[in-house]
């Protein structure tokens, strides 16, 4: 009886948790399919009387949605590629070599993850202004790259430490240099971990709003999160268009998170080999 009660409580708890997590997504999708007049009807309708794609047509045809997506893709992909490349090299050094200041570097990386982003906003804005990078995509790429290198390095360092040194030592005995052993032997084993790091960096860049709002004011350079924020007007909120944009905005991140989960698990499994 006790076992049944515990199992029943667990099922009820998970069911309630699932509903609480899924219902907001359901409500966003349904709102995006409602005509404007049905969004504010009372009592609340959990299924619209008339489904419409007008909200999606509005943001695609009337707004510069394609431009915003292009800006987000360019900034997110470029920054994620740079972060992954730098993090691979820095994580390899920190995982394979213990030198003076090693602990201080790792402590510095961890401390950067504890500080809120707005703390450095003033100095960064002044720096970008002096470099004449305000209202440029390059400013976002630089900020995203710098912000994600510490965490990406910490993440990849864990992957490197799970790969036995004997693999690269055997490659070096066969005539490979250290760099050649890294590229030919270690990186193929690390592929899942590197992919997971890239996807994590891309999703973080794709969702970022704070820096993009502060550094970009030009309409043709805005990223998708900034464009979504523009649906919040002074005296009104275009809930239909915002919900439709949110659905389109979330789809890539949902897919990438699903892919990232598999890569992270595979990477940890393959790296957990004792030499």
Automatic annotation (TrEMBL):
Localization terms from the record: Cell membrane
SUPFAM superfamilies: MetI-like
A single BP term in Gene Ontology: transmembrane transport
Protein's UniProt name: Carbohydrate ABC transporter permease
Keyword annotations of the record: Cell membrane, Membrane, Sugar transport, Transmembrane, Transmembrane helix, Transport
Xref: PANTHER family: MALTOSE TRANSPORT SYSTEM PERMEASE-RELATED (PTHR32243), MALTOSE_MALTODEXTRIN TRANSPORT SYSTEM PERMEASE PROTEIN MALG (PTHR32243:SF50)
Topology class, membrane: Multi-pass membrane protein
Family: Belongs to the binding-protein-dependent transport system permease family. MalFG subfamily.
GO cellular component: plasma membrane
TM helices/strands, residue ranges: 12-30, 73-95, 107-126, 138-160, 181-203, 239-260
Sequence ranges assigned to domain ABC transmembrane type-1 in this UniProt record: 69-260
Tagged with keyword ATP-binding: no
Lineage top rank: taxon: Bacteria
């Amino acid at each position: 009886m006790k076992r049944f009660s515990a199992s029943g409580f667990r099922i009820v708890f998970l069911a309630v948790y699932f509903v609480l997590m899924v219902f907001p997504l359901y409500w966003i999708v349904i709102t995006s399919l409602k005509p404007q007049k049905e969004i504010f009807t009372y009592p609340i309708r959990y299924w619209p009387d008339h489904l419409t794609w007008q909200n999606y047509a509005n943001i695609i045809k009337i707004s510069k949605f394609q431009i915003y997506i292009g800006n987000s893709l360019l900034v997110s992909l470029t920054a994620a590629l740079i972060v992954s490349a730098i993090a691979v090299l820095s994580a390899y050094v920190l995982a394979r070599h213990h030198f003076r200041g090693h602990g201080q570097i790792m402590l510095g990386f961890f401390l950067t993850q504890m500080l809120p982003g707005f703390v450095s906003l003033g100095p960064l804005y002044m720096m970008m202004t002096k470099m004449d990078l305000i209202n440029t995509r390059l400013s976002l790429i630089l900020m995203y790259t710098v912000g994600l290198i510490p965490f990406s390095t910490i993440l990849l360092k864990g992957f490197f430490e799970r790969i036995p040194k004997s693999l690269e030592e055997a490659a070096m005995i066969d005539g490979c240099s250290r760099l050649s052993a890294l590229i030919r032997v270690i990186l193929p084993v690390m592929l899942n971990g590197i992919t997971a790091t890239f996807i994590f960096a891309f999703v973080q860049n794709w969702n970022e709003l704070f820096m993009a709002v502060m550094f970009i004011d030009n309409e043709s350079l805005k990223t998708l999160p900034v464009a979504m924020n523009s649906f919040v007007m002074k005296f009104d909120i275009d809930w239909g268009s915002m919900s439709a944009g949110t659905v389109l905005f979330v789809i890539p991140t949902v897919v990438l998170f699903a892919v990232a989960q598999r890569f992270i698990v595979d990477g940890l499994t393959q790296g957990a080999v004792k030499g």
